[in-house]
Amino acid sequence: MKRLDHGGYSLVELMVVIVIMVILASVSIGVYNGYVNRARSAVFYEKGHRIAEAFKICEAEHGLSGEFDKREMAEEIGNIMKKPNDPDSPLYLYVGEDTDDCTDFTLSFKNTGDGKMEIDGFTYTADTYEIRWTEDDGVKVTME
Question: Do the beta carbons of residue 133 and residue 105 sit within 8 Å?
Fold first, then answer.
């Protein structure tokens, strides 16, 4: 009796190939996600630096850089505390279009004594990340 050999692969060989492909796919998905997260983080850090630069410009334009009297500057502080994506905010001219995801914007102040204070930094909050900036520490991003 003649045996016909078609030269095909056995079921075990095919299963080994499939297992190897699954392992490679799972490793590459993890690496890809790492690249995506680092790219997103870089975008948020860059946004934080742009907001910080715009904030410094607005501080200078509105007389809020350095120490200032709390009572005299209450109105200006109220304006600069508006969200950057608010058209009435002084920051809107500089970063308004880039901050459409802003859900909250807060300033932190440092009391310097004798009724005077200075702006210490800001916190920019969006749905999936938060940017904190201080003069001492620079930009820090927290992603969910």
Answer: no
Question: Cα(18)–Cα(25) distance, rounded to whole angstroms?
Answer: 10
Mean pLDDT throughout 11-19?
A: 93
3-class secondary-structure state, position 130: strand
Query: What is the C-alpha to C-alpha distance for residues 117 and 67, in angstroms, rounded to an integer?
Result: 5
Q: pLDDT category, 18, cuts 50, 70, 90?
A: very high
Query: Could you tell me which residues are beta bridge partners of residue 117?
Result: 68, 111
**Does the pLDDT of residue 60 top 90, yes or no?**
no
Rg over alpha carbons for the chain, rounded to the nearest Å, is: 27
Do 76 and 63 meet the contact criterion of CB atoms below 8 Å apart? yes
